[in-house]
Amino acid sequence: xxxxxxxxxxxxxxxxxxxxxxxxxxxxxxxxxxxxxxxxxxxxxxxxxxxxxxxxxxxxxxxxxxxxxxxxxxxxxxxxxxxxxxxxxxxxxxxxxxxxxxxxxxxxxxxxxxxxxxxxxxxxxxxxxxxxxxxxxxxxxxxxxxxxxxxxxxxxxxxxxxxxxxxxxxxxxxxxxxxxxxxxxxxxxxxxxxxxxxxxxxxxxxxxxxxxxxxxxxxxxxxxxxxxxxxxxxxxxxxxxxxxxxxxxxxxxxxxxxxxxxxxxxxxxxxxxxxxxxxxxxxxxxxxxxxxxxxxxxxxxxxxxxxxxxxxxxxxxxxxxxxxxxxxxxxxxxxxxxxxxxxxxxxxxxxxxxxxxxxxxxxxxxxxxxxxxxxxxxxxxxxxxxxxxxxxxxxxxxxxxxxxxxxxxx
Length: 410
Ligand code: NIG
Ligand code: FE
Known about the structure:
This protein has helices at about 90-95, 100-105, 110-115, 120-135, 150-170, 190-210, 225-240, 255-260, 275-285, 290-300, 305-310, 330-340, 345-355, 355-360, 385-390; strands spanning about 1-15, 30-40, 40-50, 60, 65-70, 70-75, 140-145, 170-180, 215-220, 240-245, 265-270, 285-290, 315, 380, 400-405, 405. It is an alpha/beta fold. Strands 1, 2, 3, 4, 5, 14, 15 and 16 form an eight-stranded mixed sheet that branches. The chain has an eight-stranded parallel sheet with strand order 6-7-8-9-10-11-12-13. α4 packs across α5, α8 (about 255-260) packs parallel to α9 and α12 (about 330-340) runs antiparallel to α13. It is globular and about 70 Å long. About 55% of the residues are buried. Fe (iii) ion binds next to loops.
């Protein structure tokens, strides 16, 4: 089955399957009057109409002169969780800080209670509906973390929900083990025993069952310090899990340096990161996975994206969808904030949510650019060009979405 997308006003895509850093972050191919030819789930051709291979397509989609880009990749989500946390917001407005709420047994720990109580089927249905919403916004691949179980049974329950979604939902999912998301209440008085449990039992069991590709840790004041985080990430590595790290979200306590030291594939948040941290990341080739919606929602400053690009750190932008610091999976809104708050140019933002995001979750060989051989994941936007896509905000501009060559009906 061959599908031809014709009358593309502008085809915008990064090229290649490597992280785009420095000046290359802003270098994309922009082809006017283009077409894309698809066979089954793969791209056969993407480029100028004049170069399109001859032959009859089984189906023709008229892009109506609009913009086409690769499907968006959301490289950081906490997709699977029980409950919500709407009641924390009024408390925060009265002055309670994110870490104060966590210390008082709320925050992440309150979602841990709801997730432990939730059945697997209930979590599956809730997460599938959320994924439908993400897909409707143009997100065709996504990373999903555990981290609301903090015991082996519930962490595995979350990861099995992700595995079932991998098998049943059109969005491609990549699973991350985040057992080190907080110290569970049971271990409050002796947190190192929880780190021992993670290292000796939970990580080996998760790896053994093949439930995760990455291992992540929340390295933060009052959560896991750099030494504890190092132990977790090294244990993950020893069991074949690639390290990721929530670093310098609130305080710069050495998370970015640790990312460099363990050669993490990516470091996330980096709101408070300093020059030393960024140098370490640049040297080790760590991708910065920036989460501007979280800065917005927590009322924090924004990660120094421009400085990172200057230092040749590849920048990805993701949603950080979770029930606490970011109850939004709208990657289009994260892109708007990338433009307006990080001061990234539209082409830099596009690389951040396509190829660099794909690299951050190990999918760069399959997605992240529109090139022959890659998966036919793409979006026809209700916009003529990238400037328009990033200029408008607050409404869904995804017009037609193709996932693995199939048109998504909404
Ligand atoms: O990435 N920072 C740690 N984890 C999440 C928040 C999780 C929550 O508040 O439930 C984040 O922001
Ligand atoms: Fe997160």
